[in-house]
Amino acid sequence: MIATPHRLEPYAQLPDRYSDRQVAASTVDALGRVVTLLVPPEATCTRRVPPDQRLRYDALVMVMDGTDVHEVDLADLDLHFPRIDSLDSGFVLAAARCRMPSGPPASTFEALEREIPHNALLVGHDGARLTTFHAGDDIQHLITDTNGNIWIGYGDEAAICAQTPANHRRTSSSGTKPQPDRRMTMSMPGLIRWTSAGEPAWYATFDRIGPGSWVDCYALNVGADQTWAYPYTGFPLVEIDATGIRWTRRTPIHFASAVLVDGDNVAFLAADSGPRKIPGHYTVTLTRSQNGPLETVASASLRLPDGTRPCTWARRTVCRGNQAWLQFHDERTWYRIEL
Question: Domain with 98 in it: what CATH number?
């Protein structure tokens, strides 16, 4: 069934006073605020340059809640292709790409800890650095929730020196404090839930209920108490709660870039099908399930508020429950779609 085109609505636009800065990262947090990492125009953190040409940079975190704007200064960052979101304690930032250790393996756990890149950073509301941790390479999604979890979805080139999740660690013989196991190299981790202190709490690939393939966490939706993942290669919809995967359902849509969930109703945003894909031409497909596979109910084209189609693919996409926020050619403007 072909439905009326689904129009995006304007959500937020960065104030003009920040027009002299680059947008290095931006998101819509769990409270609906726009969180943006702004850097000087000469910063190289958003460019594909050799490692020896990457410059450290100062940045400004701008949090916009309606007309209220809050600023936090960050100094001397080295995160390449950064991601950002908010936490109760402040903010979490991560470099989407990092160089993993190469050459002979480290002979001791301590030596390995010194080798691996700490490409994630926790900072307070005042910009003070709280801690760093190794979040792995090829980060596609970094989204926090209201419970203090940090959800990181990975692409198909991902690798991480993984630790045992905090709730699976051994207890030492001298006390009750959990002791970390040695790290192991993991490729294609798919999706990891981290604590607000940067500790791994759950790995998708360790959960026996989930799909067999987590090559790429193609789309991720982080709600209040549930999270939904849409992994390649099979593109099922996977629902996750605090204890792990609850269920996996087959979907009729492949290669969607956004998923919206409202009870039994699920909408997928995917590029128009056909051999000639035109940038910005998306279809929103509404599906429904009665405790079984998702089945198509209706589909409609995605339109901008003026009724035209976007002229570029989405630069950034954030999905939370029944809402998704998107940016297109203008990385200072956010639009919203609601199921």
Answer: 2.130.10
Name the residue with tokens 């939706």.
221
pTM here? 0.92
**Please, what's the b/e burial string for 187-214 (b: 16 or more CB within 10 A of its CB; e: otherwise)?**
bbbbbbbbbbebbbbbbbbbbeebbeeb
Query: Taking a C-beta distance cutoff of 8 angstroms, is the pair 120, 114 a contact?
Result: no
Residue with tokens 């209040």: 224
Which neighbouring-strand residues pair with 296? 287
| Whether 234 contacts 190, CB under 8 Å | no
For residues 99 and 128, give the distance between their C-alpha atoms in angstroms, rounded to a whole number: 25
pLDDT tens column, 232-285: 999 999 999 999 999 999 999 999 999 999 999 999 999 998 778 899 999 999
Tell me, yes or no, whether 173 lies in a domain. Answer: no
Which residues in the chain come in under a pLDDT of 50?
170-174, 176-180
Query: Does residue 187 lie in a domain region?
Result: yes
Q: Interior CA angle at 2 toward 222 and 226, to 5°? A: 15
Query: Which domain covers residue 90, as residue numbers?
Result: 14-168+178-262
Q: What is the pLDDT of residues 96-140, one digit of tens each?
A: 999 887 766 666 667 777 789 999 999 999 999 999 999 999 999
Query: Judging by beta carbons within 10 Å of its beta carbon (0-12, 13-18, 19+), is residue 4 exposed, middle or buried?
Result: exposed
Reduced to 3 states (helix: H, G, I; strand: E, B; else coil), residue 257 is: strand
Q: What would the 3-class secondary structure string for 154-169 be?
A: ECCCCEEEECCCHHHC
Q: How does DSSP assign 50-85, residue by residue?
A: -GGGPPPEEEEEEEEETTEEEEEEEEEE--SSEEEE
Number of domains present in the structure of the chain: 1
Q: How far is CA 37 from the centre of its chain?
A: 15
